[in-house]
Amino acid sequence: MLEGKIRESISKSNAKALRNDGYLIANIYGKGLDNVHCAFKINDFIRTLKSKTTLVFPVKVDGKSFDVVIQEYQKDPVFGTILHVDLMVAQKGVEAKYKIPVKTKGVALGLKNKGVLLVSKKRIRVKAKPENLPNAYELDVSALDVGHSILVRDLPQTEGVKIIDNDSVAVVGVIKAK
């Protein structure tokens, strides 16, 4: 389980000092809960993210345990390091908005016909209870030719999960290379 510590001060200088010590600044929030300003060791956080198998994962801050989902994160534009992360508490039985990652599998047919695979939406916005959440939307792109795409309405429907994104938005497509 990922363990963090409470931030005593939420000032800019405190955040900078924590980042210099190898910490990642984070906020944990949820419906009806007080915000928790905390920090995690950045290497432990990345290791936890790479090893997790579900969208929801546990963290422990100040002796309290939370089941959380990553809602938003900020990266340094030059170095690509993670600067800040927002974690939302996934409360059992409470419906909330989440972002589900999109994963592609297979090699698109259009790549052999001088096309380029373009993933337009890396995450799909849904509204659901945490126990109904899919871990990811896996899309088979092997049948896509140049000019073809998979739209939001073509995604597999899951019981208890409502997709918020517009139906006519392309998720993955193959475009002609210039």
Automatic annotation (TrEMBL):
The keyword Magnesium belongs to this UniProt entry's keyword annotation: no
Keywords linked to the UniProt accession: Ribonucleoprotein, Ribosomal protein, RNA-binding, rRNA-binding
Recorded GO MF terms: 5S rRNA binding; structural constituent of ribosome
Entry's Gene Ontology cellular component terms: cytosolic large ribosomal subunit
Domain Large ribosomal subunit protein bL25 L25, first and last residues per copy: 2-87
SUPFAM superfamilies, per the entry: Ribosomal protein L25-like
GO BP, one annotated term: translation
Pfam families in the cross-refs: Ribosomal_L25p, Ribosomal_TL5_C
Entries under Gene3D superfamilies matching the protein: Ribosomal protein L25, beta domain, Ribosomal Protein L25, Chain P
InterPro entries: Rbsml_bL25/Gln-tRNA_synth_N, Ribosomal_bL25/Gln-tRNA_synth, Ribosomal_bL25_b-dom, Ribosomal_bL25_C, Ribosomal_bL25_long, Ribosomal_L25_dom, Ribosomal_uL5_bac-type
Key word Ribosomal protein present: yes
Family under the similarity heading: Belongs to the bacterial ribosomal protein bL25 family. CTC subfamily.
Function statement: This is one of the proteins that binds to the 5S RNA in the ribosome where it forms part of the central protuberance.
Record NCBIfam families: bL25_bact_ctc, PRK05618.1-4
Protein name as it appears in the record: Large ribosomal subunit protein bL25
Organism: Helicobacter fennelliae MRY12-0050
This protein's encoding gene: rplY
